[in-house]
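Open question from group meeting: does this chain pack into something compact, or does most of it stay loose? Before anyone orders reagents, we agreed to write out a predicted structure and look at it together. Recording both the input and the output here so the notebook holds the full record.
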Amino acid sequence: MVVDLRQIQYFLSLFEEQSVTRAARRLNIVQPALSMQIAKLERDIGKPLFTRTPRRMIPTPAGEEMYRLFLPIMTEFGRARERLMHSGDALSGHVRLGLVPSIGQHVLPDVLERFVERHPEVTLSISEGLTDHLIEQVAGGQLDLCYTNRSDRVRPVATDVVLRERIVFVTGINDIPYPPKVSLVELTGCRFVLPTRENGMRHIVEQALEADDGHLAPAIEVDSILTSARLIEKSLYVSLMPESIVRGLRSRYNFALRTYELKNKGFERQIVCSHNLRRPMTKAAQAFHDALASRLVAEHGLDHRKRQEERRIADRS
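Structure tokens returned:
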């Protein structure tokens, strides 16, 4: 039996997509070519790798085992190729990065300026989007890595939590008295401005509410952070935002906002970096990830370490 790298690549894509149409689109080939290669692979192995249904291609036990065996081979092949192409050279290449709008607004410009100055042979392409779309692009190879608010386990995407940060209750400068600490259940009557349901931050808020059997019906749904801040600043609208976002709105845009701590345990957002297991990060992509992650951690470092220690103490008690 002879199996070439192209067949392995085709098989892995079909296994992950479970659809000939989506896998062919991801591989940028026509569907008959993909079907022919998979059929040839099955004949060579002597076992069916997929059960065909009108809606999807379901991996058989043989297909599950082949995926488990072939995935690390392709991952190591990608790493070896990357090392050979760039060994001994200055960093070069093109890095494609995706971000949700709420991440890195106040740190990204500085990171970009310093990175390009240090690595002039590296070009960067940065796009903003919502979590599901960005992770789909990483899985399909359109992005090298992305930073989002949550970790979604989607084959073949691997995720690393860069840090966690607290979410706070945000109001404008008005005369409504709120206690220093509030719970989400106590705020259900407020006029909330929240992101749309497709936004990762909205998902975090709704998960926290479910844990407390609460419910929020936002008066306005908007994904733009600046629009939300303008609504909140001089009105009775309120919101829930990560601490770093509020700091950036105050320091960079001079928004007059008040924040209040939430009583809800563990109400925080993760900043997560996702990359494709089958397309190991290039040296340039890894260097940019290190630069951005280090800056993000530095912005939150002391508070982050303190909260981590507090959680460890709470877990032991």
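Observations to bring back to the group:
The two ends are 58 Å apart (CA to CA).
The longest strand covers residues 157-172.
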